[in-house]
Amino acid sequence: xxxxxxxxxxxxxxxxxxxxxxxxxxxxxxxxxxxxxxxxxxxxxxxxxxxxxxxxxxxxxxxxxxxxxxxxxxxxxxxxxxxxxxxxxxxxxxxxxxxxxxxxxxxxxxxxxxxxxxxxxxxxxxxxxxxxxxxxxxxxxxxxxxxxxxxxxxxxxxxxxxxxxxxxxxxxxxxxxxxxxxxxxxxxxxxxxxxxxxxxxxxxxxxxxxxxxxxxxxxxxxxxxxxxxxxxxxxxxxxxxxxxxxxxxxxxxxxxxxxxxxxxxxxxxxxxxxxxxxxxxxxxxxxxxxxxxxxxxxxxxxxxxxxxxxxxxxxxxxxxxxxxxxxxxxxxxxxxxxxxxxxxxxxxx
Amino acid sequence: xxxxxxxxxxxxxxxxxxxxxxxxxxxxxxxxxxxxxxxxxxxxxxxxxxxxxxxxxxxxxxxxxxxxxxxxxxxxxxxxxxxxxxxxxxxxxxxxxxxxxxxxxxxxxxxxxxxxxxxxxxxxxxxxxxxxxxxxxxxxxxxxxxxxxxxxxxxxxxxxxxxxxxxxxxxxxxxxxxxxxxxxxxxxxxxxxxxxxxxxxxxxxxxxxxxxxxxxxxxxxxxxxxxxxxxxxxxxxxxxxxxxxxxxxxxxxxxxxxxxxxxxxxxxxxxxxxxxxxxxxxxxxxxxxxxxxxxxxxxxxxxxxxxxxxxxxxxxxxxxxxxxxxxxxxxxxxxxxxxxxxxxxxxxx
Lengths: 349, 349
Ligand SMILES: CC(C)[C@H](C(=O)O)[C@@H](O)C(=O)O
Ligand SMILES: CC(C)[C@H](C(=O)O)[C@@H](O)C(=O)O
Hints:
CATH class of the largest domain in chain A: Alpha Beta
Mean pLDDT of chain A: 97
Protein name (chains A, B): 3-isopropylmalate dehydrogenase
Helix content of chain A: 25-40%
Oligomer: homodimer
Largest sheet of chain A: 10 strands, mixed
Strand content of chain A: 15-25%
Distance between the termini of chain A: 19 Å
Structural class of chain A: alpha/beta
EC number (chains A, B): 1.1.1.85
Largest interface: A-B, 61 and 61 residues
Radius of gyration of chain A: 20 Å
Cofactor (chains A, B): Mn(2+); Mg(2+)
CATH superfamily of the largest domain in chain A: Isopropylmalate Dehydrogenase
Shape of chain A: globular
Low-confidence stretches of chain A: none
Number of strands of chain A: 12
Keywords (chains A, B): Manganese, Metal-binding, NAD, Oxidoreductase
Organism (chains A, B): Desulfonatronospira thiodismutans ASO3-1
CATH architecture of the largest domain in chain A: 3-Layer(aba) Sandwich
Bound molecules: 3-isopropylmalic acid
Strand order of the largest sheet of chain A: 2-1-3-12-11-4-5-10-8-9
């Protein structure tokens, strides 16, 4: 029987609760589809940092490389200054494990409340491919004359051919497997002439290798408008790290919110990390009220990545059958508890 | 009688048509409220560029400084490479005339169709103050090893204390005049530690001078979610140039789209420029189908800037009375022509 070693980082706040339900559902999928998951838990997060000062020891990062996948809950603690854990755990893992694609399906499932009038599941079904290791996230920049009235603060977006090429390659390959085969580059070529000069050049060059893929380009400001007004235009959208951060959160709202939005941090040739994209939501922690669907759908992305396509599909179908039974997708207003949602989905597998 | 010298740049596509209606309404306001507008037209835009190669001659820029205000239609021509006119006219004017605040009211008027379920005019009524002269728009950056597989493209966000301070100052002053007196900084402090390190530091320091203003902070990704889910949380939002570009377009969609969204490029101590924020929409040019409301509301912002507060209010009220008579706010589907909308609003003044 195929066995997968999976590192679990439950993390902070609601992380442990939603991860537990995800594991429950993944276990059920393993039984049904014939594979075993060998879980190894890591207590990274705010509690450990507050107790020991440790954020993400090098040795742990080294160990993580030995897994088939990483399954993450949420990072963020009310007693820790914002930025420290996100940068020290989430961003550092993305960089050191070179998780160069952030994959975010934006899919409105039947039965899920959408904030947009006149838009339904047939209109909202696309995937964002976000570059995940460079751009404005490079951490490059600095202060000059800090704290004076002559201060200058510079923040640099660093884009490399290598980084842009592989991200676009992933997006073209993905688009080529889809029914509509359409790939949209989201950028700001009229202002960010250097950063998106490179992106657009490589995009148009690579498009010649994929004659079956229809290409399109939209500025990031217009993209946000279309995501609300005409989301049906999109199939696969590729963009840089910062714009990807913005449009994937906007997309999450259109698919029912953070309770249901999952993402993968992917290194196609290494270990990848899967997560519900919402935060740790401390005010709901430990109350069995948080929505585990995002974590469960992160499990679906993980199964796909592990090569268990059938199990991934079975999991998604099980989720779709339970979603209409939930009152809303918001914590505390689901009409079901966290564990009840997990039980129901596991039972549907 | 008070007289104002106004430079008009009708520009490309639908620009001339919507500007004409704006002038019509502003003339009517002048008659009613007792001021005169002395218009001087400039033929900047795609046609002039294609004929003469001239984009924005220094001498014209010099002349523009002598006006009380600039009234702009739209810039962008199908036969001109994207970027050239936007950068050469719009961005250059912002930079050279130091129009350091981009002011964008996001207001849903009664009778206007909103794409969001469960949100009405009482929920969507806030103003974005966008920094308009620095950040990622500085044009700073470059290519290394261009065209090779070792290429690096760098784009820099340059933020100065001077630039950030005056923009925040404007936002605090504005917030202090509003009923709710709430100011939200939209940034990305957890990743753009330099750029928004400066912004946040100055923001919190300045807040001490405005004890009556309630302050708040949201990351840009979360801001986009709240703008859809809970726009009623916002009163005045202040942000940098790039994020401002993104969130104001998103906001425009929630207030009924580009047909109705107006903006001001403001130098509080100099000449300011007012514009409908939509593009030149070449496919509707010359057909009397474009929506002039955005241009007319840009006129309202201009009157406010000129110190004609009462006339500005009268103009806004006239617009509100006509909006419910329009079928939609989209070009070609208003149930009225461009000039009919202008006539109706002028008549209501
Ligand atoms: C927590 C934060 C650093 C992170 C990001 O900006 O990438 C998050 O918003 C995300 O999208 O995963
Ligand atoms: C045309 C373009 C350069 C401009 C910008 O990015 O600022 C526009 O989108 C705007 O918001 O006024």
